[in-house]
Design a protein that fits this description.
This protein is α/β, with parallel strands linked by helices and 380 residues long. It is built from 14 helices and eight strands.
């Protein structure tokens, strides 16, 4: 059995952010909270978006307090503002953290605070239309039901279950993303795709979209890192992010993201960086279960196979190709991030308790997981 769907309609096109107001108006909104962060709120894209809303006769309430890995108290603050202003729509302009925050704030529009009671809980009164405009190509949050929130009481990442209503994908909005952010968000999309293919519950639609995402990231991420103004590369990466988001929303991610969530919550490092660093060893592990699926990932990266490779060799070959890619785009090592081997190994129990671990293709003992974590530290 395989299940697949698409939660959120998408509009894709260069310069389409200028049409945001009309699209929001078409959804019946008259007063929206514009969710963003301090950095994005200073960019031209933010003003273009806001002016478009105002020109369409929509009242705008700014909320620019989102921070990376949005904590529960920021969501509660946004929810209180949305309630006080009696908004009837939410527009999110930003990266994955902003889009996730907007979805979480939506849960609070017609429900009591705090947000923590809705983490992993799909039972709540429906909110208002949520329109998301990604400024990075990585999370695919416009196409997933999850809105990741940091539970500060338990120091873990969790999520609300709340899809967006409409996604507006404008590649021009991503032209000014710095090289480092381009690199790690692009590898987040790659990880979504690779894990969706090798998950416990794969499906044909997810595999098709994920393989296309891997091709685009492999071919265009190095270009975008070196030349951020290359619009073709930006287009391909934004599509890759969206395709991978659709793919993993159904198939779900597994070990790599369980590791990234645990390391991120503990050491507050960029999610996409940890996903990238975990990926080679995760693919070696996945190849022992589904060598045919890992081989597909290698072929999407234009890796050559003789046809005589066994599971271990397939895993090694694909892992080497991924390491070459992340080295090319200058992803820092675990050591460079200032995390010691002992500290990294210390998150093992947390990894096993992460929700994404439920979708691993093969259960691991604590000792096996520690070996994988050690290899992540030593092999890059």
């Amino acid at each position: 059995m395989a299940k697949y769907a698409q939660l959120c309609p998408i509009i894709f096109g260069n310069g389409f952010i200028s049409q945001t107001g009309e699209e929001v108006k078409n959804l019946g909104c008259k007063k929206v909270i514009l969710v963003s962060d301090e950095t994005i709120s200073k960019l031209d894209a933010y003003h273009t978006c806001k002016n478009s809303l105002v020109a369409a006769g929509i009242e705008v309430v700014p909320f620019n307090k989102v921070i990376p890995d949005p904590p529960d108290y920021i969501i509660d603050e946004g929810g209180e503002l949305a309630k006080a202003e009696k908004i009837d729509g939410i527009v999110a302009l930003g990266g994955g953290s902003v889009m996730d925050a907007a979805k979480a704030i939506n849960v609070l529009v017609h429900n009591p605070l705090p947000i923590n009671q809705y983490l992993g809980n799909p039972v709540y009164n429906p909110g208002v239309p949520v329109i998301v405009i990604p400024t990075t190509a990585g999370t695919g949050s416009e196409s997933t039901i999850m809105g990741v929130v940091t539970d500060t009481s338990n120091q873990v990442k969790s999520a609300v279950l709340c899809p967006a209503t409409l996604g507006i994908l404008d590649p021009e909005v991503t032209l000014d993303v710095p090289p480092s952010v381009t690199a790690y968000t692009g590898m987040d999309a790659f990880a979504h795709a690779a894990e969706a293919i090798t998950t416990k519950y794969p499906n044909p639609k997810s595999e098709l979209l994920a393989l296309e995402a891997i091709k685009n990231v492999t071919n265009y991420l190095p270009t975008a890192v070196e030349d951020g103004k290359n619009i073709v590369a930006r287009e391909k990466l934004l599509l890759a992010s969206n395709f991978a988001g659709i793919a993993f929303n159904d198939a779900l991610v597994h070990l790599g993201h369980a590791i990234a969530h645990s390391v991120g919550a503990t050491f507050h490092k960029a999610h996409g960086v940890i996903c990238a660093l975990a990926l080679p060893e995760v693919m070696k592990y996945a190849a022992l279960v589904s060598p045919d699926k890992v081989k597909l990932i290698g072929e999407a990266m234009e890796v050559s196979f003789t046809g005589d490779e066994g599971a271990v060799e397939i895993g090694e070959v694909v892992a080497a190709a991924i390491r070459k890619l992340i080295t090319t785009i200058r992803i820092p090592s675990i050591k460079d991030l200032g995390i010691s081997k002992e500290e990294l190994l210390g998150v093992a129990r947390m990894v096993l308790e992460d929700v994404c671990y439920q979708y691993v293709p093969k259960e691991l003992t604590t000792e096996e997981l520690v070996d994988i974590l050690e290899a992540i530290y030593e092999n890059y």
